[in-house]
Specification:
Elements (H helix, E strand, L loop, with lengths): L1 H22 L21 E2 L3 E3 L2 E9 L5 H11 L4 E7 L2 E7 L5 E7 L7 E10 L4 H5 L10
């Protein structure tokens, strides 16, 4: 009898958690930047407020599992018209960063460690004031250039 109760309890917990996932809102744009979000990505985590080259940055962070870096970066290249792409490697992870030409917004697709070709995360950032061209180019580099 107790075993049956535990099975029912586990089944109820599983169904409830599944319903919560199904009921989670499907975002089409990032709340911080308004930029489009790769399909299926959910639940942003706010990044701590930070400064890049003395300029304030706010952003969101999304964990992504199973998608390929090339496919996700290609999707952003098509959906971020006019954005410039910068490539870097940091801490054993690839980083494809797309900057709005005026330096006020960015999206970074970060790969998993170990050259798996899979995405680890996608992050969005908003800068005030804007980053310069040199600051954008060195954003994910080990040696950042600040103007």
């Amino acid at each position: 009898m107790r075993k049956l109760f535990l099975i029912k309890l586990l089944l109820l917990a599983w169904l409830t958690s599944g319903a919560a996932v199904l009921a989670a809102p499907h975002l089409t744009s990032d709340p911080q930047t308004g930029l489009p979000i790769y399909p299926g990505v959910r639940d942003p985590s706010p990044l701590p407020k930070a400064a890049v080259c003395g300029k304030q940055m706010q952003g969101d962070f999304y964990i992504v599992m199973g998608d390929k870096v090339d496919a996700v970066a290609d999707w952003y290249a098509k959906h971020l018209a006019g954005f410039k792409k910068y490539d870097a490697t940091s801490d054993g992870r690839t980083q494809d960063t797309f900057f709005k030409p005026d330096g006020t917004q960015e999206v970074t697709v970060t790969g998993s460690r170990g050259n798996t070709g899979e995405v680890f995360s996608i992050s969005y950032g908003r800068f005030q004031p804007a980053l310069s061209l040199r600051e954008m180019a060195s954003f994910n580099q080990e040696k950042r250039v600040c103007d």
